[in-house]
DNA sequence: GTGCTGACAAAAATCAAAATCTGTCATTTG
DNA sequence: CAAATGACAGATTTTGATTTTTGTCAGCAC
């Protein structure tokens, strides 16, 4: 128990386990300390408040979502295939999480809800990845966009129903896969065609 | 007070007012009855449960959103202009509601949250309107889509961040207008170009 | 001295008793 | 007799007293 020294990492590992078992509402700092075999005062040496501990747990959870996506963003295959795969991987990861363990997903969702700053950073990271893919697509001559950053944000926004936890209730419904495909195909179509960002050249007449 | 006879309409009008003033949590059937100057038993003559009363209020609220949109859907101008205006009207209506009276908006959101069936019907109505516009666009030769229904659903989904209450917190942020324009432009672009629905003809490659 | 403890005050959560509300229905009213 | 009432049982919410938790910090231990 007291063999290893008490690090932030170790606290986070344990906190995650306790959170997983008890849910967010019933987890206290004292619980986490007890699970570690230390006094709760020690935890405040590593995290100034309980909320900051929650934020850190949320950040790790979000990182586990973002990491596999980063790989896709940094490959150098055809951008359109990577974009589709990136979006599907994101949606699929989220979907699996809810369907596998709704309880735990709800815990993390609540956690993330409160950790506004952490989520903002996460979204920035994801849109940066999208920007990279779209920029690659432009370099490859597959996409034609005025602003890759704006287009990336647009892609992220347009797919919000398939990755934002607020819509998780619908992810189990029968039609979602088809809905997802429609939206992704629209996105591909838009990026491949004229400017995906408010340039002067309006599509259609 | 007791001059008019007690109709469902009159109950709904009053319920809406009480809800507006007290919020959903603090509004009881007794409150509504008191505001009407009748006994609460009378209300159960028109609505079987408190929930059904809530549903009816939610339905009226949603109808007030859908009605102006129906006008746009039934015009016969150029579809792309109507689509853009339809989407902006929807987003703008929602946005005004939150910014004007967040308290009241929250009340209605909670109401709608619970009135699942009512919301489903509302969404069906809206996507039907979109289908009509897109079908018109196809007839006008402006849009090329394999399935107007699927495309309509795609358009609705892709703009979810701008009209779904779960995202209302962001509607006050500075960048949203630009974000909205990007997404709408992408949509126009996709509809104007190749099939907006999973046909065999993939965009790109 | 660095890292941890545990007692403490203030804040928040819990619990059970009391009050209120929902939904029913036999009775009253017009 | 159609429409409304109000007393009632069971469910839910409120209230306020009690317990638990958070976050601090003086001091202990290594």
TrEMBL record, chains A, B:
Stored Pfam families: TetR_C_27, TetR_N
Keyword Transcription among record annotations: yes
Key words, A-Z: DNA-binding, Transcription, Transcription regulation
Gene3D superfamilies from the UniProt entry: Tetracycline Repressor, domain 2
Domain of life of the native organism: Bacteria
Domain spans labelled HTH tetR-type: 5-65
InterPro entries for this protein: DNA-bd_HTH_TetR-type_CS, Homeodomain-like_sf, HTH-type_TetR-like_transc_reg, HTH_TetR, Tet_transcr_reg_TetR-rel_C_sf, TetR_C_27
DNA-binding region: 28-47
One GO MF term attached to the UniProt entry: DNA-binding transcription factor activity
UniProt-listed PANTHER family: HTH-TYPE TRANSCRIPTIONAL REGULATOR RUTR, TRANSCRIPTIONAL REGULATORY PROTEIN
Protein name stated in the entry: TetR/AcrR family transcriptional regulator
Gene source species: Halostreptopolyspora alba
């Amino acid at each position: 128990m007291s063999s290893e020294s008490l690090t932030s990492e170790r606290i986070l590992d344990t906190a995650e386990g306790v959170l997983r078992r008890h849910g967010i509402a019933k987890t206290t700092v004292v619980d986490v300390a007890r699970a570690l075999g230390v006094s709760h005062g020690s935890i405040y040496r590593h995290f100034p408040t309980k909320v900051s501990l929650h934020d850190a747990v949320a950040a790790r959870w979000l990182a586990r979502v973002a990491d596999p996506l980063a790989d896709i963003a940094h490959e150098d295959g055809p951008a359109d295939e990577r974009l589709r795969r990136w979006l599907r991987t994101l949606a699929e990861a989220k979907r699996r999480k809810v369907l596998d363990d709704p309880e735990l997903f709800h815990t993390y969702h609540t956690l993330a809800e409160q950790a506004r700053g952490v989520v903002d950073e996460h979204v920035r990271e994801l849109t940066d990845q999208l920007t990279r893919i779209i920029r690659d697509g432009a370099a490859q001559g597959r996409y034609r966009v005025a602003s890759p950053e704006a287009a990336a944000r647009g892609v992220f926004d347009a797919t919000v129903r398939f990755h934002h936890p607020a819509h998780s209730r619908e992810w189990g419904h029968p039609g979602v896969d088809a809905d997802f495909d429609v939206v992704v195909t629209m996105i591909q179509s838009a990026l491949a065609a004229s400017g995906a960002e408010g340039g002067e050249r309006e599509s259609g007449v």
